[in-house]
Amino acid sequence: MLRMDDYNLSAKVYWWITAILGGAIIALAIRSVATLPPVSIAQVVAGVIIAGVAGAYPLRIPSGKVSITGAEIFIFLALMMNGPAAAALAAAAEGALGSYRTSKRWTSRLGSPAMNGLAMFSCGLVYTAGVEFVHGHFGAPTLLMQLALLFPMAIAYFAASTLLIASLITLKQGLPLRPVAILRDHAWMGLVNLACAAVAALLFTGYETLGMGVFLAAVPVIGIVLLTHRVFLREIEASRLAQQERVLAAEREAADAARHLAELQKSESRFQKSFSHAAIGMALVTHQRIVLQANPALCEILGRPADAMAGADLGAFVHRDDHPALVGELGKLLSGSTATCSMEVRCLRPDREVVTVALHASFFSASDADAPCLIVQVLDVTARRIAEQRLQHIAHHDNLTDLPNRAFFFEQLSAAIAAARRDPSYRFAVLFLDCDRFKTINDSLGHRAGDELLVVLGRRILAQLRPIDVVARLGGDEFAILGRNLREEDATALAARLQSVVSEPVHIRSAELSTSVSIGIAMGGPQYASPEDVMRDADIAMYRAKAQGRAQYAVFDAALHAEVSSQLWLESALRRAIEQEQLYLAYQPIFDLRTRQITGVEALCRWVHAERGAVSPEKFIRVAEESGLIVPLGQWAMEQACRQLAAWHAAVPTCSHLQVHVNVSGVQLLQNDFVERVRSTVQTAGIRPERLALEVTESMLIDGLSVAVPNLRQLRDSGLHISIDDFGTGYSSLTRISDLPIAEIKIDRSFTSRMSQGREGEEVVRAIVVMGRAMGKRVVAEGVEAEQQLRKLLDLGCDGGQGFLFARPLAPWDVEALLKQQRPRAVAS
């Protein structure tokens, strides 16, 4: 609270000494006043309050930086009426309230009252001794005697209080103490104290004669005088400020008038200089368009000398196609229809070069002019127009291929849709092209090679189109073509030609590249309301073409629309089914081929819709992966399977070895928090981590190997088993398989079924089993449906099997019944 960081050591010592002494004096004064009669105590309290209030509202001296208060009157009265203690309290009150209003530092708020109280108490003791001496030798002192005693005390109080406070400031600044100089600088305060002492003596004399009534009359009068003086000083200050403002306003007005006069005197000279040296072309022209005078800038713009300009018709320099517009605009100006005219016209130079200028004309008159004329300003905007045309081109064209871009294509497509709505017989076609394997080219040869390939493809596509058609690069490796007045057979023929020319080899950086395009075709007509609708259907058709294989095209039709609608319905229904938990899990047992005992179960998701019946897992799983619903669906399936496994372990103690296999989508595995979710699910279900096996397809591992493998390693380190599902369909190398953190390989059912068709199918399975056993992996065959397949798998050394020969997917209670039928001794761990 006491911030003294700007105090040096001398100032700190001085402040503490004066503050402690002053505080002690104030405490002594309070104790002394407390022994007075109640009437006297009331007088002291009133005097302290009045002195404090008067000190809190000082009066500023006009044209100066000092202020005065009337508090000393009441301090001196307290001294004469009740002694030094009362006066010290009144002086302290004046210092406390005054410093509280003027300073936020507690060193001032505490130091000022302490110093005032110390000064007043000291001077008051001397005054009281003088009064007692006079009273003992000469009787009751008269008014003159009171003044004779009070004036020296007032001067002494002024000197003591001033020196106490000013000395602290001097010590803080590190300056030497000069008491005489301090008193000389504040001498006016001594005069104020003498005046206050005189008023206090008169009031005290009246009090001895008339009693308390004199105070009841004097205090309001003093307050009114002080208040009137305060208002008077404010009025004086306001009048002074107003007078200063009037003087400044008069000076500003005089300066403005002088400046305006000087400007008027120089205006003609400035105009002549501006006209001659202006950066833009200027000319004075008669109402008949005859040039009176042309400045050098205009001569340079038009490439003509000044003498050839003077006396010539302004229209002679304007391109003949723009001449009627110039005459018309100047006619409107001369007729008074407009105050100015502005336009852009083309002008011809002697070398037949055309320059585009911005022309502005208005009336002009000068004091020495024979008749009013026009002033014409001409600015060469040729470069700006060229730049604007270039920007317009950039805004509507692709920076890489220089083909129109998406924005320009959509504008043209909007115009085609509007034309079809006006004329229902009008037809157009939109071909959406997407390059096949373009990402592979980018990744192998770099983006620069990919850019060069796109440029070549853009040129080849453009070469196959008519002048009325539009081709645009939409972004990446996507192109779009708008064919006007095109029938469906023409559009398909164009698609076939495009696929032919695109597939021709391209030589880039000593490499021969070849690619193909998948093309979606949407036939346009009045049925479309917006470009987005046309592009949506063309995009759908393009994806249908990709699904048919590379280098294909497809036309959007009602059947494709129905398929998309069905897809959308299926996605919406699946979302509701997940939210309302309408799906369930079936479990297909996995058997040890030698013991014919169950070693695990695979959780399979099933969905029976309330209206459409059973929905094929192939359909809704694919929709779930495309829409992102596979994440909540997969999490739900994992939680359900783990809880069910815990229930089986509790119901059948002999099946503690049982594993549950849960299929994991690539979308799930690439989630940042997938590992933590699996760990949390296992912990919540209360099963051991090694009893949960995650099945991941081989193709997914190949596509997302860099991200998937770290997650799989973390799961393996946590104790979980990782199994490769549908093995043999992803064409992965032995090197990749050996690096994967897997414990089991599941042979795809397509290879198992071929074992019954000949020796070739058997050899494929043999190779997979041998490879798996060599790498220490457990091998399980899917789709075992015949005893012949089982015998061959046993001969080949396959570990496990899964299929209709053993069991179909079962309900949880059927699995539990099957587990209870097993012999404990035959169960393989």
Structural category is: alpha/beta
Globally, the shape reads flat
Number of strands: 23
Residues in β-strands, percent:
15-25%
Task: Give your account of this protein's structure.
By secondary structure, the protein is an alpha/beta fold. The chain is 59% helix and 16% strand. The protein has an 8-stranded mixed β-barrel, surrounded by 5 helices. A 5-stranded antiparallel β-sheet has the order 4-3-7-6-5, with helices on both faces. Strand 1 and strand 2 form a beta hairpin. The protein is flat. The two termini are 78 Å apart. The C terminus is likely disordered.
Compact description:
The chain is α/β, with parallel strands linked by helices and 829 residues long. The chain is 59% helix and 16% strand.
Please give a handful of descriptors for the protein shown.
829 residues, alpha/beta, 5-stranded antiparallel beta sheet, flat, disordered C terminus
